[in-house]
Amino acid sequence: MVAFTSLLTMNSVNIALPTMQHEFGVPPSAAQWIVLAYQLPLIALVLPSGRWLDLVGPRPALALAVGGFALTSVAAAAAGEFAVLVPVRVLQGCFGALMLALTPALASRAVRPEARARAMSVLATLGPLGALTGPALGGLLLESSGWPAVFLLNVPICLLVLGIGLRAIPAGRPLCWPDRSWLTEAALVAGAVSAVLLGVSFAATDGLPWLGLLLLAVPLFLLWRRRSTSAEVLELVRRPGMAGPHLTLLGIGLAFAAMNLVLPFYLQRVLHVDAATTGLTVLAFPVGMVLAGPLGGLLGDRWGARRTGLLGVAVVAAGLLLVLPLSESWQPVDLAWRLFAAGLGMGLYGGPVQSLAMGAAPRSRIATTAATIQLARSIGFALGPALATTLWAASGYALAGMRLGLGLAVLAAAATLPALALSRPKVAMVASPR
């Protein structure tokens, strides 16, 4: 349910992005920060969140993460100005980072190792159910009640999650305050990522000097690298077989986010369809994910996680290649079946690839590993819109620039194939749950 509500929010807000850009009177390069402001803390906080969650009880952590997420959703709906909405989205992303790190850890601990790919595919299926519901409900709410209602979609789900989780999950250890190094590490990561995103986002519209910000990321990363807290993360990522799944999650996340930014603008600005039709059209992608997710988990446990992941990534790349033309003569249905094909690949790859990483993790570092795989995905989610917007802006926000953004998505998906093919995880010894 946590996986469900996080993707519900992400996809419904993307549908509302063209409307909010128009109402706030900001250019697309600024409007994308409604999305990036949420992604940034996901990247900055997910690593320290994972280490912190290895030390605290899952039930109080769930209450903090989901309760905070619900409250900030209400605050986002009440924000009447762009300058208010963006900081609220940053705060919402802070709680989202806790949710991201917590969810795979709970699922991995709940099942035997031989069922791990199916467990991860449950997350990879329930998440798309949120994506499935978000565009349709978001588009309808946008038409009937305006964009603030879109942010309220997840509030009832959060309350349901709290009701179930507080009863079903053992309390374990109480919450404790993270030490000051937690905030220092988050600030360094946030600064490095912000420098990259700002440089990429504004270089096309405001000049190449903005690319100089990318250089600022280097010393910030080196400062993080020198900290003692980075040692266990680097040791974990260097374990045999860890790099391939992480790079795959990053590349597919980038491809998905680039596509997700471009398509609402294409449907509403090029094909001139309304928000409700936009939501129903992009619904085809998560429908494919939902249908293929259980099959991906089953194949991952029976046929092999790496081979199933490779099959899924190849189908994603082929589906996005079919979307790439973005013809002005298409009808929404012409886009929908192509998105459905790409969604099938996403459903096949998600659970098995996460299972590869979680299976190689030591028992004592389950939450930290969950955080690193979510960090890889979140970096992709943040870079996708930034790079796609830069390519789009370079063409004067024309259709050709949208195709360039989709081309980036195709290349990112295809580039993950060799990384995953060469991955040979060393499975950690994990005790079966009682």
Describe this structure in words.
The chain is an all-alpha fold and 434 residues long. The protein starts with a helix and ends in a 13-residue tail after the last helix. It has 18 helices and no strands. 80% of the residues lie in helices and 0% in strands. The model is unreliable at 428-434 (pLDDT under 50). The protein has one domain: MFS general substrate transporter like domains (Growth Hormone, Chain: A, Up-down Bundle), CATH 1.20.1250.20.
Q: Runs with pLDDT <50, length 5+?
A: 428-434
Which radius of gyration do the C-alpha atoms yield? 20 Å
What's the number of structural domains?
Answer: 1
CATH architecture call = Up-down Bundle
* Measured distance between first and last alpha carbons: 23 Å
Helix content: over 70%
Specify the CATH class: Mainly Alpha
Class inferred from helices and paired strands: mainly alpha
Strand content: under 5%
CATH topology: Growth Hormone, Chain: A
User: Quick check: average pLDDT?
Assistant: 84
- The general outline is globular
